[in-house]
Structure formats: C-alpha cells, structure tokens
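Exercise 3.2. Students should predict the tertiary structure of the chain below and write it as structure tokens, then compare their answer with the key that follows.

Predict this chain's 3D structure.
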Amino acid sequence: MWYTPGMKIYLDADGIPCRKDVLECARRYGILVVVVADYSHDIALERGMERITVDTGTDAADIAIVNRIQQGDLVVTQDVGLAALALHKGAAVISPRGYKFTERSVQEGLTVRWLRRKVRAARGRMRGPRRFSGDDRTRFLVLLQRTINTLIGRSDENR
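Answer key:
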C-alpha cells in the first residue's frame, strides 16, 4: 500500500467514535492515520495506522499530536484546546461530529469551556454533550472526504 507523502491524519483517540470510518477513508486515499492515545486505551494496530501510546495525563495525547503535526496535516479531535494549537501550526482540524474548527469557532469554544469551568467551580451543574448520532456520523464523513480532497489538491468532482 502506498501512502500520500507529506500528509497524515492525526486522530485524538480519546473518546472518538469514528476511528474505523477515518481508517477506511484514509486507506482509499493512501493516507497514514496516526492514532494517539494514552495507556488506558487498548487500540489494536490496523493496516494504514500508526499507533502512538503516551502516558496518562491531562494533555499527554494533545502534546504528542502538537509535537508531530505539520502544515497540511489533518487532525480529528473533540478538544477545542488541541484544535487551537493545531490550527496555529497550519493543520486542518475537524470534529467527529462533522464540524470544521476555525479561528473563530475555537475562540468561541475556549470561552464556553472557561464559562463551564466557572459554573462547575461554583458547584453548578451542566449537561454533558448529546449522544453521537447518525446525522453526526454522516456530516463527519462528508466533511472528512471534502477536507482530504482540499488538502491533497483535488476538487470534489475528481473523486
């Protein structure tokens, strides 16, 4: 199997419901998927995948990803903090719910995260995220393919 030189997909594997979808799509394009998770996650190595295991810790996987990404890579994460750092390094960043991170959405997300921490610190309660849905998966797959096509210089018509 050949791999597209110069581009990798980094998967922040903590709680990502779409790892198999990313691997399938990346194989079609010949792109290596780098899955980063801590020791508490047992992730089997698959074809087209590099696995990086890091120590358990709040930001260990995020730091490992940021230290490796380059301009033109793709990062799949739910973490707005990691998204901010990856965008700064020139990577494209998408969420498994099918949303593209932008400078503006990251700023909004960081503000919301800060407000949620303040509410929790005051012993307030907040709802967690909604369940991952079929609509989320569909939106993610469309965005994943579109983002890959953009990064490798293909238009959607040339698929």
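Discussion points: The chain has five helices and five strands. The longest strand covers residues 32-38.
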